[in-house]
Design a protein that fits this description.
The chain is α/β, with parallel strands linked by helices. It contains 16 helices and 20 strands. The protein has helices at about 20-70, 80-90, 105-110, 115-120, 145-150, 170-180, 195-200, 275, 325-335, 360-370, 385-395, 415-420, 455-465, 475-480, 500, 505-510; strands spanning about 95, 130, 160-165, 190-195, 215-220, 240-245, 265, 285-290, 305, 310-315, 335, 340-345, 375-380, 400-405, 430, 430-435, 445-450, 485-490, 515-520, 520. The protein has a 16-stranded mixed β-sheet. A two-stranded parallel ribbon has the order 9-11. The chain starts with 18 loop residues before the first helix and ends with a strand.
């Protein structure tokens, strides 16, 4: 009898080991590991290639930037136009900060070789120099940047500003800087000095030859002796003087060319001023800056200055003078300016609140007495009611340019919806009579509003639109209101809806200059 046969069972782990199967599985396991390693290697290769491509793209972007720079429109401009742009950009070079941002001529020359060549070949870019003696480093024996600028300025007339805090004596390096600038006095075009010590050091060489000097500004200190400015007797081109104080009652003892001045900026007022303004002269611009220690005394009858065309009043919140000696009241009460066309009133210390009342009656009396044709009015940072401003504008039918800025005015801002409505060119709105049309000849309007919300944008747009007429419109004389040509509206603390102002874009395309700025950003939708 044959032994019974058992069926062979499939391979099972730990039972009935099949070494052939084990070998096959081991090979498959090795193949899987190899595939994993190949995948890892491919991943590393691809990641490395991605990094290469990213770096390559960055290089291409840099190259693209270079190409775009080479293709920029400014490179297509003639050198003459580029230099005019440079000239506008290089207002003053402050050499004592050590920062390129304050030295535009040097900044421009660092951009590229072409600009460097242009800048170095243009001496006027290097001829406007500011030095702050109290900000400069005193541990250095020399100040080579000044010599560098003077060399590149060649022999062109210089604008020199020597500023700083009050010092009793100068350190050697400070005195050396003043001596270097003083040696160039025959090239001074404009001189600004802030302290008596600096002024004395600049004049230490006793120079009396100023053939190029156009403007002289001596701030923060005044003169007591009538001969203090006699050294400028031979300054044939000097037309502008800014000084804290001067004994105007003794002008007959002064050899300064007072009658040649076109612009006088002074920080005091007294009856003696009539000796200057009433005499035949070329004085066109008269500026008064209120100084805490200034001297302001009214005079009667008022002094008439027949040649003055522009009056500027800069008031001070910190003055301790009684109301009867308030600078703005004193000047407006004590002067008659029949040729006046421009009036500017602003504040020096906008950090402090201005408490004085708007001199409504005093200003009205001044305008009535002067019988002048005012074309430009600018009021900045002065609190006043909208009704006072409206009353003032109703008295100025000849006004062409109006600027109102209520920055730092916490109460009594004149910029209100009522003011804007009264600037409308139509006397009737619907069935209601608004008011007489103000400032019929107005050509430019600039408003700066510091409020947060109480401004009617739609009314403003409507007012601007009402004062616009196309250049080809034949009946503007019949309408009686001139076309507005420029509008600038600045909102310091509020955003605006661009859609509300979008209708003005049609006026801009037709020729009106329209600028709307909200929180420092210009609306791009116009």
């Amino acid at each position: 009898m044959e032994a019974p046969t058992r069926d062979r069972k499939p391979f099972q782990l730990r039972t009935n080991l099949d070494f052939a199967e084990m070998s096959k599985m081991s090979k498959e396991f090795a193949d899987v590991n190899q595939d994993i390693e190949d995948c890892e290697a491919e991943v590393h290769r691809l990641q490395s290639h991605i990094m290469f491509l990213q770096n390559h793209r960055q290089r291409l972007d840099e190259y693209k930037t270079c190409l775009r720079s080479l293709m920029s429109p400014i490179r297509k401009l003639p050198n003459e136009l580029v230099l005019r742009i440079f000239d506008c950009a290089c207002t003053i070079n402050d050499l004592t900060t050590g920062k390129l941002a304050t030295m535009p001529a040097l900044t421009i020359s660092c951009v590229c070789t072409h600009w460097q060549d242009l800048a170095k070949s243009t001496p006027q870019l290097w001829s406007r120099i500011r030095v702050n003696l109290t900000a400069m480093r005193l541990d250095r024996p020399e100040f080579p940047i000044l010599e560098f600028y003077l060399d590149l300025a060649q022999q062109l007339p210089l604008t020199v500003e020597v500023l700083g805090d009050k010092l009793e004596t100068l350190e050697p390096i400070q005195a050396a800087v003043c001596a270097t600038l003083g040696a160039c006095s025959d090239r001074w075009k404009e001189l600004i000095v802030s302290q008596p010590t600096f002024y004395k050091a600049l004049m230490a060489q006793d120079s009396r030859n100023f053939p190029m000097l156009d403007a002289l500004t001596i701030s923060n200190f005044g003169f007591r002796l009538p001969g203090s400015l006699d050294r400028f007797h031979d300054a044939p081109r000097l037309h502008s003087l800014s000084v804290l104080s001067f004994p105007l009652g003794k002008l007959h003892k002064s050899n300064f060319p007072w009658k040649e001045l076109n612009v006088l900026n002074i920080c005091s007022y007294s009856e003696e001023l009539k000796h200057l303004v009433e005499a035949p002269s070329n004085l066109k611009v008269l500026c008064f800056c209120e100084w805490e220690d200034g001297h302001y005394k009214p005079n009667s009858p008022p002094t008439t200055a027949p040649s003055v065309e522009a009056l500027s009043l800069s008031v001070n919140s910190q003055t301790t003078h009684p109301k009867s000696e308030n600078m703005m009241d004193v000047v407006l009460t004590s002067m008659t300016l029949p040729a006046l066309t421009s009036l500017s009133i602003d504040r020096l210390d906008i950090a402090d609140e201005y408490q004085l009342d708007w001199p409504k009656e005093t200003l009205e009396g001044f305008l009535c007495r002067s019988s002048c044709q005012l074309t430009t009015l600018s009021i900045k940072s002065i609190p006043m009611s909208d009704s006072d401003l409206i009353d003032l504008l109703l008295r100025l039918p000849s006004l062409l340019h109006l600027t109102i800025d209520d920055s730092k005015v916490t109460t009594r801002s004149p910029i209100t919806t009522r003011l804007v409505q009264n600037l409308h060119a139509f006397r009737y709105r619907g069935k209601s009579f608004i008011s007489p049309v103000m400032v019929h000849k107005l050509q430019s309007l600039s408003l700066t509003f510091s409020g947060f919300g109480s401004f009617d944008d739609r009314t403003f747009v409507d007012v601007v639109s009402s004062r616009w007429y196309s250049r080809g419109y034949p009946h503007t004389s019949e309408i009686g209101v001139n076309s507005l040509r420029s509008v600038v509206m600045r909102f310091l603390n509020r955003d605006v809806d661009p859609g509300i102002y979008s209708p003005l874009k049609h006026l801009e395309k037709d020729g009106m200059r329209v600028v709307i700025i909200a929180k420092g950003k210009v609306l791009q939708s116009l």
